[in-house]
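ARCHIVE CARD
Drawer: 12
Card no.: 0347
Subject: one protein chain, sequence and derived structure
Cross-reference: see card 0346
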Amino acid sequence: MDPSSSDRARALGRGEFVALMATMTSLVALSIDAMLPALGVLGQDLGVQSANHTQWVVTALLIGMAVGQVIYGPVSDSTGRKPPVYVGLGLFAAGCLLSILARDFETMLAGRFLQGLGVAGPRSVSIALIRDLYAGREMARIMSMIMAVFILVPIAAPALGQAILAIANWRAIFGAFLLLAALSFLWFEIRQPESLPPERRRPLSPRGIAASYGFVLRQRAVLGFTLTAGISSGAFIGYLNSAQQIFQDVYGVGSRFALYFGILAAAIGLAGVINGRLVMRWGMFSLSLWALRSMAGLSSIFFAYAFLRSGAPEFWTFMVYLVLSFFCVGVLFGNMNSLAMEPLERLAGVGASFVASLSLMISAGLGAWIGQSFDGTILPLVGGFALLSLLSLPVMRWAEGGRPSPSERPPGQMAGVSTTSEALSESQI
């Protein structure tokens, strides 16, 4: 990009640009977390026979998002960044409308799938857009500012959902999503210039995309760390699926659900901050291995204790366990996808799509299994954390054997330290 086009693309001030990108990337977390307090009443209104089936409201969105992430990255490289964002926000809005009008659970799930398929657009493309405009330390600074805003969303989203339920029904929550999507669309259209000029766009070739994905699949480190990310995140998705039932049905916290959910989200955010400081000294692999071992050991011990307490130990012990486990989850979130992206400097776009989509598909499937196993106790969730952490360890060790040696890593990248572009592929919610 020549200097003049770069200046035009950066027409927004830094503060406004950060706010816009944070708004678009936070649609994912908001679409999941703000719905959690409403799952029970939503299931009753739509005639869901089993309380566990309402968890598909979360899973359907995640599956749609996993599918969408494969599509938007290559398309945005060909058409420019703005058209895929428009399409994504349009699909998200259509899904919100379908959910608002839903009179049966099947229609609701179709709406949620559309929301996930759509929200993958602004989330994926916003990362590419940031890459277009900023590099090096300046990009790191922008991303740090965006993440500082993003961390607030899962802390506040359940409270927003509860506040809407206090004055309206659950359909109004989707109305709020629809309003935010419309505002994001107008803001992005009016204020954000296109960041990828025509001369830098690549032809959209199905054969070329297939060849790129084939190359990515053959990379042992990429596949291994992607599998590890998906398996280790499965229990966290299981938590998202069953959190409303555990907190409100098992422990009867009522309206305090949003408070406790926010505390646990803050533990993940704190882990991300601390991980950013420790990774320079200890490296991504060592910290991730420590997090998995700690989570496996802690979960195994607490599972035994919970079993002796008939599956419902004291609430304060459960919260302490979750805070410690979610700190480990935060460390994994900060490192695992970056480890998977380490060998893919020249295929960062396709690689990021592959890693994000496959890991999310795996974690969504495992999370659905854990959530559907809810039996009125915390045992399926805690057991899921223990089992999946233990399963992740040998996969991660296998993946380590395929990592590039220090001499093969991109220039300027220290062993065990992710580049900024790799860190941008970090997922999930």
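Annotation on reverse: The chain is about 75% helix and 0% strand. Residues 124 and 429 are 13 Å apart (CA to CA).
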